[in-house]
Design a protein that fits this description.
Layout: H1 3-32, H2 53-61, H3 64-95, H4 101-110, H5 120-129, H6 136-140, H7 147-158, H8 162-170, H9 175-186, H10 188-203, H11 207-212, H12 221-231, H13 236-266
Length: 271
């Protein structure tokens, strides 16, 4: 790489880091500053004392602990469902005896081109007719399958050595045993990547949880933060404290799993 390209890359990375990092640092610094010092400007990034009063105010104004628990339940359920359906669908496409696996695969891919807003009303009416409105199940049920996860898992499975699959089949290894003993352990980076992406999407969901939930006790934390902002329009510190509450779990999750992300997204990229 030439020096000019190297400098351009460094400038790009610095700008990208600032775009991603400044809002996070602003929320954290604004949340821990004393009340009168929070102005809603970038000056909030400068240290001027330490206080937890905004966190106490946010917890008093909204049931954030309950909503964090709701988000955790929704995230775990939706992530597990998407990983299981993605793995099984990809296994059937690669190792199954389907007549037209590529045609089925592209049918899955077509669903990625349909905007989520176009099926919003249909999903809402379905949830209403099932009597699940204002429940946690309503938040994750329509998102138990993700075509992009099938794409990633299929690419990873296609790079799996065929010789191992053939040897396992000759030794009498069934599909379930082969999946659990050979396939998933050797494609672990992709499985972790799919899990991380599903968890982040589930945790950050806003529009659908807002539509299918009504009471504060069944809402997720992302919706709860918005309500907090409405109630505390003149107290930006409480809003920033709520945002910090909701952001920290995903930051920790990404830090723990970031080493798998690159490997997971590139595994099978040559296929």
């Amino acid at each position: 790489m030439s020096k000019a390209k190297e400098k351009a890359l460094i400038i790009y990375l610095v700008l990208a880091s600032l775009l991603v990092g400044v809002p996070i640092f602003y929320a954290i610094f604004g949340a821990i500053r004393p009340g009168p010092a929070v102005t809603g400007s970038l000056w909030d990034l400068l240290p001027s004392g330490f206080s937890l009063e905004h966190f106490e105010d946010a917890l008093r104004r909204a049931p954030l602990v309950q909503q964090m628990a709701n988000s955790t339940i929704v995230t775990i359920a939706q992530t597990l469902a998407q990983v299981v359906t993605g793995v099984l669908a990809a296994y059937a496409l690669v190792f199954g005896r389907l007549k037209r696996p590529n045609l089925i695969f592209w049918v899955f891919m077509v669903t990625m081109m349909i905007p989520g807003e176009t099926i919003l009303v249909a999903n809402y009416l379905t949830i209403r007719s099932w009597g699940l409105f204002d429940t946690l199940a309503a938040v994750f049920l329509p998102f138990m399958f993700a075509a992009y996860n099938v794409f990633l898992m299929r690419q990873a499975f296609m790079s799996f050595p065929k010789e191992i699959h053939e040897a396992a089949s000759i030794d009498g290894c069934g599909p379930v045993r082969f999946l659990g003993k050979f396939l998933l352990p050797l494609t672990a980076p992709t499985v972790v990547t799919v899990s991380l992406m599903s968890a982040i999407a589930a945790w950050n969901g806003y529009l659908w949880p807002l539509i299918v939930s009504e009471s504060a006790s069944t809402r997720t934390v992302q919706v709860g933060i918005k309500a907090l902002s409405d109630e505390a329009a003149t107290d930006i510190g409480a809003s920033l404290a709520g945002i910090t509450f909701a952001t920290i779990p995903m930051i920790i999750l990404v830090i723990i799993g970031q080493k798998f992300l690159v490997r997971g997204l590139t595994q099978g990229a040559g296929k």
